[in-house]
Amino acid sequence: FAVWVKVLTLGIFEVISSLAVTGIVGQDVVLPCQISTRTQPDNMEVQWKKIIQTAIETVYEYRAWTGQDVPGQKYQGRTVLLKDGFTSGNVSLKLKNVQPADGGTYSCIVRSNAWSADAATELQIADSSAVLSR
Ligand SMILES: *[C@@H]1O[C@H](CO)[C@@H](O)[C@H](O)[C@H]1NC(C)=O
């Protein structure tokens, strides 16, 4: 009985993304990320990180308890996470003005008081100038 009560109150959730998205240089791209629950986890924290061979770079962070969102140093003014998505579990990140160097693996990490889950997506870059320059 005690175990069952725990499962109900823990607020376990999953995080879902897609395997890969394609961004076009100079345009905006949405990195998809969805929380499996309908209700926002308690004290939710959302982090987007870029995984680079030797390091992990912070792209964006949001903490529900302060309402503060902080873009990573190299991503100032380039990230948008729509606040109304928090209630529906949509924590997809819009990355503006995609650059060739943005290509790579991005991880969406969602934490609450009692649980944490993450999902990764691969950003592939398509260069439109290769087509336009001729
Ligand atoms: C989630 O939000 C993004 C914009 O940030 C939007 O492009 C996308 O369609 C939304 N996804 C769903 C499932 O509503």
Automatic annotation (TrEMBL):
GO molecular function terms listed in the Swiss-Prot or TrEMBL record: signaling receptor binding
Subcellular location(s) of the protein: Membrane
Gene Ontology terms: cellular component: external side of plasma membrane
Coiled coil: none
Ig-like domain ranges (all copies): 26-124
Signal peptide positions (record): 1-20
Keyword annotations from UniProtKB, A to Z: Disulfide bond, Glycoprotein, Immunoglobulin domain, Membrane, Signal
Alphabetical GO biological process terms: regulation of cytokine production; regulation of leukocyte cell-cell adhesion; regulation of T cell activation; T cell receptor signaling pathway
InterPro entries: Ig-like_dom, Ig-like_dom_sf, Ig-like_fold, Ig_sub, Ig_sub2, Ig_V-set, IgSF_BTN/MOG
Identification of the protein by name: Ig-like domain-containing protein
UniProt source species: Gopherus agassizii
